[in-house]
Amino acid sequence: MNDEAKLSSKVLVLDEAKEPSKRIKAFCDDNNLIGVKTSTINVMSVLKSNVDLGAIFLSEGYGGKPETSLAFARQIHQARPELPIFLRREDSDSLSDLPEQDRGLFRCAYKIDQMDKLQESIKECLFNLSYPSVLVRGIGEITKAALEGLFRDVTIDSEAPYIVRDRIIYGELFSLIPLESDWCRGYMMLQTDEKPMIEFVEIGKTPISVEKATFRDINNVLGEVTNMIWGAFKNRFIAYEATPVGRLAQVPIIVNHMNRYISFGSEDAQLCFKYTLRDPTGQCAPLVVYQRFVFNLSWAPDKFKENEAIADDLFESGELELF
């Protein structure tokens, strides 16, 4: 099996204590976590708008006293039940003394001087799936190539891939396409905003040339780039003879448009990529594209391999050479 990719995950840190915050920051640095903070008055607005969180770190005294932090936990769980909440306590790493109805709000409790329990729980809920480095790197390469092939005269910035657990939909547009092989079964999803996509179409940044773009035009653009990425993914990572056949199990995909929520029936974290397309002339706003991979039906990375023909082509073209 290929080396495992080192991926990070973003966690919202709700902890006002100075010294523990330093320890939590060090813990994040050591465990591939990116800690972000906000004020107490902004917590719920951040949760409603942020689409790439992995977990919540909440202190027992957040907001002034334990009763206040429990109230925060209830609100967070109601708004974003898919996000695990880790409770930092002063005197115990147990939840048994909390009101019974509140114990289920938390993934686990921990003390700042005993963080092994927190570390194990983070591995279980955020980094439980291993992703081969070749796969992660390849996804970024083929996606950027597809975007460059479809959008004209733009610059494309891509962030380092990361892990998310939230189920919030970004923007008004998203596409889904299934991925099936002997090593994976799931979906690729692209999400983006409608307005900048319309602007990109109307100023001639795409193959579609119209003065007044409609939702059908931007649907076609998103569908085309989805197909391009899917085709490249299949050619590079899925051998034709290895594609499963016969009757396969499925799970419902639930979309709640009112709450901008999508569920694939799985508790596993998702592999996420973020790309930002910019018009150098400044005629339109940047176009942000989120790409997620949800291997909710089957995941067997030990069977993964890059198609040999692709590697051979790279050697023949001179892009790769032996050291």
Question: Can you tell me about this structure?
Answer:
- With 323 residues, this protein is an alpha/beta fold.
- It contains 9 helices and 13 strands.
- It has helices spanning 18-30, 43-49, 66-79, 100-103, 116-125, 133-150, 194-202, 215-237, 308-317; strands at 8-14, 33-36, 53-59, 85-88, 108-110, 155-158, 162-164, 173-180, 184-192, 254-256, 261-263, 270-278, 287-299.
- The strands form 2 sheets. Strands 1, 2, 3, 4, 5, 6, 7, 8, 9, 12 and 13 form an 11-stranded mixed sheet that branches.
- Strand 1, helix 1 and strand 2 (33-36) form a beta-alpha-beta unit.
- The longest helix is centred in the C-terminal third of the chain and has 23 residues, at 215-237.
- The chain is globular and about 65 Å long.
